[in-house]
C-alpha cells in the first residue's frame, strides 16, 4: 500500500465469541449499584420537565434486551466486560499495536482505540447520564437554549441570584466553594466546558459532578452511592486510557478514539476531548470520532471546536456516517426516547457536508496546525465534495488539514487514486490473532454481502483494467515514481 501512497490504521478487531444470552447477562451483571434519578435533579421538578428527566434516565440505563451490542451492527467490533484483568490485557494489546504502527509505518500511521475495551461499559453509561443531567442543570441555571448553550456562562453573583429565583437561600460560603470547584479555568465564570476537566479530577468518580439541591441548599453528587469498587474501576479505566496515550506519544503514533452507541457517546467524547486538551498542544495527536448520521453531529462538533479554540489546543476529528443506525432506532423506539438518527440518507449526506464545511471554516479562522479532519467515507460523492472543498479553500494535500480513510479491501479505486494524486489517505486494517478476529470478520462479510452494488462497480472497473492491460501488453503495472507523501 505504501508504494501507492496509502498509509495504515491498525484496528485491533478481536471480539468475544459469546452467545446473545451471555452478552445480555453480562450487561445486567455489570449494572452500577445505584439506579435512581439523583435527588438533586428531581428537586428541579419545577424548572425541568419531569418527563424529560425520566426519558434521559431511561436512555442512559441498562436494558437487558439491548445487552448484546453486536445485534444490528456489522461494521464495528464490540467489547464485553469480563474483568479488570481483561481490561488490563486490552490496554497491553493497544500498546503492542502502537509499537507495530511505529515500527511499520515510520510514525505515519494511527491506532484506533475503543474506550469500552478499557473498562466496564456501565460506568460510561452512568457518566453519560450524569453529563446529560449536568447540562440540563446548567441550561436551567443560565436560562439558555440548546442552540446557545456553548456560549452561555454564569458568574458567582448571577448564580446566587438564580438560586434565589428558585426560592432557596444557600450558604454563601458553600456556593463559593462549589463555584471554585467547578470553575476549572478560574476565569470567574462557569460555562458548560468547566464540567469537562475529567482526567485531572478522576480520583473519586462520585465527586466529579456535584450540584446544589435547590430544595435543601446542599451540595449533592449527581452520581450518588457508588461503591468503593466502582470508584476504583473508574479510576482504573482512566489510568489505562492515559497509559495508552502516553505510550503512543512516546512512540510518535497518533490515536483515534472510536465512536460508539449514543448512550455511551457523551462520556466517550468527554474523555476524548480531555485527551485532546492534554496531548494536542502541538498538533493533532488525538482524534475524536463524530457520526454524521446523528441529528446532533454539527452541534457536537461546534461545542468541541469552541473549547479547542478557547483553550488553544488542536481540534482533531474523524468524521464518519455511523455504524449503529438500526440498533439505535430500535432501542429509541422501544425504550421511549427521541430517535437520534437523521430521518433520511440525504439528510445524513447533508449533515456530513455541513460538518466538513464548518471544520474548513474553523481552519480558516484559526490557521494552519489548529484543526484537522479525517474524511472516513466510502461515498464517492462525499470524497469529491471534500476534494473540491480543499481546492476552494486553497488547502494543499501536503498540509494534512483534510485526509481520507477507507476500510481495507473496500473502495480501493478511490483510495489508491487519492494516494497517487498526493492526498493523505489511510486504510483501516483489522488486526489480531486470526482465530480471535474471525467473529468480527464474519460479521463484516455479512455487511459486504449487502453492498453488491459497490462490488459490481469495482468488478466492472477491474474488468476494464484487465482488458486495457491485455490490449496494451502491459500485464504488470508500474507504480509512478513520486516523492514520499
TrEMBL record:
It is an enzyme of class 1 (oxidoreductase). Gene3D superfamilies: 3.20.20.220. Keywords: Calcium, FAD, Flavoprotein, Oxidoreductase, Proline metabolism. Its cofactor is FAD. PROSITE patterns: EF_HAND_1 (PS00018), EF_HAND_2 (PS50222). The keyword Calcium applies. Pathway: Amino-acid degradation; L-proline degradation into L-glutamate; L-glutamate from L-proline: step 1/2. It comes from the Eukaryota. Belongs to the proline oxidase family. Its EC number is 1.5.5.2. The keyword Cytoplasm does not apply. It comes from Acrobeloides nanus. PANTHER family: PROLINE DEHYDROGENASE 1, MITOCHONDRIAL, PROLINE OXIDASE. This is Proline dehydrogenase.
Amino acid at each position: 500500500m505504501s508504494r501507492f501512497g496509502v498509509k495504515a490504521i491498525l484496528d485491533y478487531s478481536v471480539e468475544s465469541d459469546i452467545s446473545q444470552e451471555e452478552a445480555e447477562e453480562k450487561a445486567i451483571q455489570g449494572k452500577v449499584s445505584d439506579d435512581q434519578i439523583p435527588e438533586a435533579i428531581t428537586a428541579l421538578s419545577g424548572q425541568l420537565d419531569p418527563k424529560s428527566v425520566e426519558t434521559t434516565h431511561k436512555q442512559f440505563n441498562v436494558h437487558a434486551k439491548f445487552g448484546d451490542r453486536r445485534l444490528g451492527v456489522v461494521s464495528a467490533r464490540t467489547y464485553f466486560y469480563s474483568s479488570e484483568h481483561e481490561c488490563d490485557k486490552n490496554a497491553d494489546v493497544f500498546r503492542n499495536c502502537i509499537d507495530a504502527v511505529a515500527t511499520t509505518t515510520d510514525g505515519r500511521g494511527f491506532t484506533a482505540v475503543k474506550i469500552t475495551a478499557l473498562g466496564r461499559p456501565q460506568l460510561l453509561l452512568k457518566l453519560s447520564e450524569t453529563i446529560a443531567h449536568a447540562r440540563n442543570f446548567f441550561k436551567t441555571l443560565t436560562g439558555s437554549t440548546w442552540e446557545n448553550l456553548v456560549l452561555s456562562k454564569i458568574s458567582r453573583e448571577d448564580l446566587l441570584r438564580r438560586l434565589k429565583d428558585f426560592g432557596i437561600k444557600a450558604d454563601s460560603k458553600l456556593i463559593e466553594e462549589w463555584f471554585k470547584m467547578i470553575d476549572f479555568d478560574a476565569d470567574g465564570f462557569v460555562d458548560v466546558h468547566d464540567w469537562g476537566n475529567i482526567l485531572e479530577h478522576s480520583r473519586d468518580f462520585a465527586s466529579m459532578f456535584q450540584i446544589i439541591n435547590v430544595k435543601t441548599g446542599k451540595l449533592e453528587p449527581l452520581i450518588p452511592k457508588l461503591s468503593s469498587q466502582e470508584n476504583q474501576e473508574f479510576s482504573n479505566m482512566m489510568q489505562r486510557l492515559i497509559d495508552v496515550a502516553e505510550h503512543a506519544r512516546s512512540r510518535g503514533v497518533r490515536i483515534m478514539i472510536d465512536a460508539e452507541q449514543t448512550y455511551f457517546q457523551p462520556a466517550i467524547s468527554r474523555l476524548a476531548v480531555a485527551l485532546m486538551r492534554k496531548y494536542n498542544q502541538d498538533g493533532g495527536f488525538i482524534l475524536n470520532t463524530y457520526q454524521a448520521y446523528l441529528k446532533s453531529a454539527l452541534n457536537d462538533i461546534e461545542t468541541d471546536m469552541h473549547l479547542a479554540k478557547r483553550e488553544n489546543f488542536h481540534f482533531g476529528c474523524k468524521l464518519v456516517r455511523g455504524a449503529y443506525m438500526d440498533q439505535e432506532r430500535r432501542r429509541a423506539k422501544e425504550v421511549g426516547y427521541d430517535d437520534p438518527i437523521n430521518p433520511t440518507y440525504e439528510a445524513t449526506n447533508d449533515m456530513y457536508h455541513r460538518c466538513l464545511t464548518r471544520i474548513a471554516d474553523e481552519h480558516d479562522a484559526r490557521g494552519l496546525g489548529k484543526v484537522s479532519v479525517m474524511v472516513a467515507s466510502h461515498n464517492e460523492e462525499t470524497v469529491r465534495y471534500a476534494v473540491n472543498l480543499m481546492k476552494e479553500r486553497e488547502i494543499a494535500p501536503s498540509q494534512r488539514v483534510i485526509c481520507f480513510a477507507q476500510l481495507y479491501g473496500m473502495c480501493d479505486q478511490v483510495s489508491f487514486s487519492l494516494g497517487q494524486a498526493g492526498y493523505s489517505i489511510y486504510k483501516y486494517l483489522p488486526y489480531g490473532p486470526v482465530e480471535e478476529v474471525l467473529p468480527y470478520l464474519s460479521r463484516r462479510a455479512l455487511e459486504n454481502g449487502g453492498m453488491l452494488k459497490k462490488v459490481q462497480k469495482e468488478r466492472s472497473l477491474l474488468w476494464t483494467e484487465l482488458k486495457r492491460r491485455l490490449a496494451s501488453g502491459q500485464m504488470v503495472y508500474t507504480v509512478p515514481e513520486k516523492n514520499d507523501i
